[in-house]
Fold each of these.
Amino acid sequence: MDEKQSRELTILGFAGSLRRGSYNRALLRALQEETPPGMRLEVFEIDGVPLYNEDVESAGEPEGVARFKEAIRAADGVIVVTPEYNHGVPGVTKNAIDWASRPPHQSPLDGKPVAILGASPGITGTARGQSQLRQAFEFTNSYCMPQPEILVYRAHEKFDAEGRLTDAKTREFLGKFLTAFEQWVRRLQP
Ligand SMILES: Cc1cc2nc3c(=O)[nH]c(=O)nc-3n(C[C@H](O)[C@H](O)[C@H](O)COP(=O)(O)O)c2cc1C
């Protein structure tokens, strides 16, 4: 196995919810527990990323944005765990991606392998939000993993009161998802 195939990958994960009891942040923690040996998943909290404003950006990136972009740049891949709001991508998720997408063609998202998953108490499990997010990653020129998809529906039945994933089937899917993402990232290594 050559160095490219064996080196430990650094993956950055962030959740598109600021809620303390967020199912999506809980799902991200469960992903961390399931990472395969060749991968380290670091969690980034996006609560320090302000609302996008081009005037602010022109005057100099806020510290929270600079840290976010540097963390993406340093990572081999990015995992976004997001809720769905009103059949779309929540503003919090999209706002963070909008900051990270700058400047176009030279942003830390350009050419970056990404993966999307999400959890919702509803029965569609963020399906529409995930599709919409894939469109955004077309413009950022990010390589969004097509399959497998993870849609955690009826999330309130799959986590305990402490936010620990209790559903064995979902946990098994997370392992498969991460193994697939590891292969996706290694395939796209420069
Ligand atoms: C403004 C708003 C819009 C929502 N729209 C949807 C929706 O379109 N589809 C869905 O499945 N859930 C929707 N929900 C419910 C969220 O899936 C639910 O609040 C979820 O727990 C949010 O994710 P979190 O637990 O990670 O914070 C919505 C919630 C809010 C607050």
Amino acid sequence: MSSLDSLIQDLVIANRILAKEEVVDAYGHVSVRHPVDPKRFLIARSLAPDLVGPEDIVELDLDGQPLTDDGPALYLERFIHAAIFQARPDVMAVVHAHAEDILPFSIASATKLRPVIHAGSFIGTEVPVWDIADRFGDTNLLVTNLEQGRDLAECLGPNSVALMRGHGFASAARSLIEVVRLSVYLPRNARALMRAKQLGGEIKYLSPGEIEARNRGYRPYSVETWRTWEYWANKAGCGHLLTRPDDGHTHTPKG
Ligand SMILES: [Zn+2]
């Protein structure tokens, strides 16, 4: 299988996992940079992530435009992905979602979303909040052009996640496996923090040293990371699509 075909399969798996883990619903999307041409990226056509198959993946340029005019309808907010890929050569995969648990942290300024659980460490020490109104005034809150996408990417800066006020989040990582993991644990971390706030008293966040220690030991295709990806893919009903890039070995579905 070519690197492009296997990446398309991984992108389908990523779509299904994010749906199964309730990070996305009918809305929200995940993309990956093209393995051969870094000036393009792959993303599904306008379709709920749980329904995405390999035939639904399209190629867009870094302005968020399709290579031909006669293609299928596209996500209105594809400019989030285009602008982040433009701004961040280190980023290979991007997620945008509306996960409900993170929304309070995009609205209330009193408590910042920061890592409080070990699996939340990948969101990093700083999670900026982007408010579309700061520069664009009254909008429908959706990122529907490249200018808005670039403003969001600027707010994201070198970080892994930006919250989008009253809307959702954008996350970015070095690989699909990492951006999915990050996006699954982001709402869980938010939920734990919210519940801890309800219990009252001082909140113990992960220290910068703890975050650094966890990230230092992380490899996208280590046995431990693969175990999660394989588990989630099977749970999402697409274990048969798994291919492990480092050895090309196809893993069989496990129920
Ligand atoms: Zn959105």
